[in-house]
Amino acid sequence: MIDHESLEEFISQFPVYQYAFFSPRELAFSERVRTVCRQECSRYGTTWACPPAVGTVEECRNRCLGYRECFLFSTVAEVSDVANLEETLATRKEHEAITAAIEQFLRQRGANCMALSTESCDLCEHCTYPDAPCRFPDKMHPCVESHGIVVCQLAEKYGMDFTLSTIQILWFGLIFLD
User: Fold this and answer.
1) Where are the alpha helices (DSSP H) in 13-167?
2) Given 11, 45, 91, 176, which is the most exposed site by the fewest CB atoms within 10 A?
3) What is the C-alpha to C-alpha distance for residues 152 and 125, in angstroms, rounded to an integer?
């Protein structure tokens, strides 16, 4: 079992902005997030990290509730304007690397964990979905929203910022722990 102090000590080497620990039972799952995915995201139905490949909201909910604890964290990236989507999305690689490092730290200490992160997976130039299995299932981080979890509600519930300014983007990661 990972204690909070050792995880807090480990993340102190990274630019983690805010974080919270809580029970997965405190999460709210919403089908409406999938409507936004389906209608507004070009990645919907094109990657193993997005719906419908991740399963129904109910399947995702059941998977998440199978864990003992959640670790929600955020990082900040500076951009010229958060409305510049290309520039903003280019900053998520650092957050993804931090998510992977935290996940690896936890696994090395024997934790069974599942990481959800930003947007959708971009490990491969071309995803194998739906024709072949994912090439890197242990490295893939589906986005938090892919599971029907509303990130802004989570941030508010745990006293975390959701927005900072027009030149700072907040990226969120959510790691489920056993």
Assistant:
1) 31-40, 57-65, 85-90, 92-108, 151-157
2) 45
3) 29
| Phi/psi at 127 (5° precision) | -70, 145
pLDDT in tens, 42-95: 889 999 999 999 999 999 999 999 999 999 999 999 999 988 888 988 898 999
Cα of 73 vs its chain's centroid, Å = 9
pLDDT at 1: 60
Contacts of 88 (CB under 8 A, 6+ apart): 77, 79, 82, 169
Residue 159 dihedral angles phi and psi, to the nearest 5°: 70, 30
Q: Cα–Cα distance between 73 and 31 in angstroms, integer? A: 23
* Under 8 Å between Cβ of 47 and 124: no
For 36, the token pair is 């936004």
The rounded distance, in Å, linking the Cα atoms of 78 and 76 is 7
Q: In what order do the strands lie in the sheet with 69-78?
A: 16-22, 69-78, 168-177, 113-116
Sole residue written with tokens 């024997």: 110
Q: How far is CA 142 from the centre of its chain?
A: 6
Provide the whole-model pTM.
0.92
CA distances from 65 to 9, 11, 116, 167 (A): 26, 24, 14, 35
